[in-house]
Design a protein that fits this description.
Blueprint (H helix, E strand, L loop, with lengths): L18 H10 L3 E6 L7 E4 L1 H7 L3 H4 L15 H12 L3 E8 L5 E12 L5 E10 L1 H41 L3 E5 L5 E4 L1 H7 L3 H4 L15 H13 L3 E10 L3 E11 L10 E7 L1 H38 L6 H31 L8 E4 H15 L4 E6 L4 E4 L1 H17 L6 E9 L2 E7 L7 H4 L22 H11 L3 E6 L5 E8 L3
Parallel strand pairs: 12-14
Antiparallel strand pairs: 1-2, 1-5, 3-4, 4-5, 6-7, 6-10, 8-9, 9-10, 11-13, 14-15, 15-17, 16-17
Bound molecules: adenosine-5'-diphosphate.
The site of adenosine-5'-diphosphate (ADP) has 22 residues, from helix 12 and helix 14.
Length: 511
């Protein structure tokens, strides 16, 4: 059996290198080094340095004489092994990364450089293998690969989610029953939804990339609108409910309601403007017809009611003496109902007058406190369930429409009585505040929840809980607010559910 001592180191003596020096150099190497004898059966290891002993955990005596394969244990099916076998067979060099196992069974990754040693005739006599333990590097590499795979998976998932939400958003935008346009900061159209194309009977070539003001026959080229749109990006103030009535190409005269907002996104969608356009031609027409109907109906109702009132007065004058008491009670009840009906029809007529802008103010100078007291007395005579307690005074003469202010007081007092069925007192307080007069009507009734408080002055609004319990049309407070507004005053309320409400109004003493 050959040993390292029999190896010839070509050229070594001529360079002044002693065998001992070369031997010590091999042992000093931090890389594991082995030499195999290719001319013996099964290519056994004939030399290993100390570093190799350290890497493998085997001692020299356990290594010498073995084929290198013992390092792979049972882990045979490695591609690196085929590469080594090929290199041995062909007498070539090779570099592989191979899984090896220490004596204690621990896996270590071995980076092996293998080269043939040839004799003078060129036959391969030995192989020299230089090995490095690259377990840590390999572990880091494998972790990196794993992380990359996890990340790729996450990116894939997120991309799918993004695509889904994009598709979701665009399906909403496409199905929305409003025309939508997205503009860049220079007011060029970047995109439009299907509803826009259908509504205006245009195609994308005529729309996308065009300036908003050049669309159609210049329908959006309106100075006032331009002024508002220019302010959207710098101030973030949206354009709300801007009405455009115009003879549009293809679709004729229409009334469009336009709302515009800045799209609140950063990145590539920054500084975009979203315009929503709604065709309100039909809705406005229906509202107009409803208002016309209200106006006609209330006029038509008022005429026979005035006759009924007149005939009732005649009946009262002509009544024969000695009628039973019951007759008078019924007579009073009929009168009361006529008064209520008259009040409702007056309110209805006022609504239609307000709608058409036909409400007129007939101003006079009168004693304000007297007017309030008279209205309270009149309401008191119609209500036996509640006592109306009047406090304070203004002590001033006011210039205003007395009839209309009486109407406001009537509405507030009637509501206070109606919406406090379980109590028996209503409080009215008058005061002079700076150059205004102020009246407060307070009840301790059902109160109004916060949400409804914002809406009670809207036309036809009725608190949902009370619709069935209390009769009404939801126009009293609307009329009050319009009258007070026309007097340059303010009306407001303070209320808490189940704890009553206070309605206040102020008007200037001098108009
Ligand atoms: P109506 O009384 O005919 O419904 P109004 O315009 O006078 O119409 O009032 C609108 C709504 O405001 C009422 O339906 C009711 O819900 C609420 N409201 C008005 N006054 C009072 C009050 N004093 N207390 C509680 N709720 C009130």
């Amino acid at each position: 059996m050959r040993s390292i001592d029999n190896l010839t180191f070509q050229g070594a003596p001529s360079r002044g290198l002693s065998f001992e020096l070369l031997f010590s150099a091999l042992n000093a190497s931090v890389s594991g080094i082995i030499i195999t004898d290719n001319q013996q059966p099964d290519n056994p290891i004939i030399y290993c340095n100390e570093a190799f002993e350290k890497i493998s955990g085997y001692t020299r005596s356990e290594i010498i004489g073995h084929n290198c394969r013992f390092l792979q244990g049972k882990d045979r099916a490695q591609k690196a092994r085929q590469l080594i076998a090929g290199a041995v067979k062909n007498g070539e060099t090779c570099r592989v990364e191979i899984r090896n196992y220490r004596k204690n069974g621990d896996l270590f990754w071995n980076e092996l450089f293998m080269a043939p040693v040839k004799d003078k005739d060129g036959s391969v006599t030995h192989f020299i293998g230089v090995q490095n333990d690259i377990t840590l590097r390999k572990k880091a590499e494998l972790e990196l690969i794993e992380q990359k795979a996890v990340m790729e998976e996450q990116v894939k998932e997120r991309t799918v989610k993004l695509r889904e939400s994009e598709a979701f958003l665009s399906s909403i935008i496409q199905t929305v029953r409003e025309s939508l346009l997205v503009l860049d900061p220079d007011f060029k159209v970047i995109s439009a939804n299907d509803h826009f194309f259908k509504t205006f009977k245009v195609n994308s070539q005529e729309t996308i990339g065009k300036l908003l003001y050049d669309l159609g026959n210049g329908q959006w080229n309106i100075e006032k609108l331009k002024e508002l749109l220019v302010k959207i990006l710098p101030t973030n103030n949206p354009v709300l409910d801007f009405e455009v009535e115009h003879e549009f190409p293809h679709i004729g005269k229409k009334l469009m309601l336009l709302n515009a907002y800045r799209i609140e996104l950063e990145g590539q969608y920054k500084d975009r403007i979203l315009i929503a356009i709604e065709d309100i031609t039909e809705r406005r027409e229906i509202e107009r017809r409803k208002d016309d109907f209200l106006s006609i109906a209330s006029h038509e109702l008022k005429t026979p009611l005035t006759s009924i009132k007149g005939f009732m007065q005649m009946l009262k004058r002509l009544q024969p003496a000695g009628l039973p008491e019951q007759y008078h009670a019924i007579f009073e009840k009929v009168n009361l109902s006529i008064e209520r009906l008259n009040g409702l029809i007056t309110d209805l007529l006022d609504v239609s007058r307000i709608q058409s802008g036909n409400i007129e103010i007939h101003k006079d100078t009168f004693n304000f406190d007297q007017m309030v007291m008279d209205a309270v007395d009149q309401m008191q005579s119609l209500s036996s369930s509640h006592k109306i307690i009047c406090t304070g005074s203004t002590g001033v003469m006011v210039t205003a429409d007395e009839q209309q202010l009486v109407q406001v007081l009537n509405n507030l007092l009637a509501n206070a009585i109606k919406y406090s069925p379980d109590s028996s007192e209503i409080f009215v307080h008058m005061s002079k505040v700076s150059d205004y007069v102020k009246v407060s009507v307070r009840d301790t009734g059902v109160g109004i929840n916060l949400e409804d408080q914002q809406r009670v002055f809207q036309r036809f609004f009725r608190g949902a809980e009370f619709q069935k319990k209390f009769a009404g049309m939801g126009i009293g407070l609307y009329v009050c607010e319009q009258i007070i507004k026309n007097h340059n005053g303010t009306i407001w309320l303070e209320s808490e559910k189940n704890h009553g409400s206070t309605f206040n109004f102020t008007i200037p003493i001098e108009p």
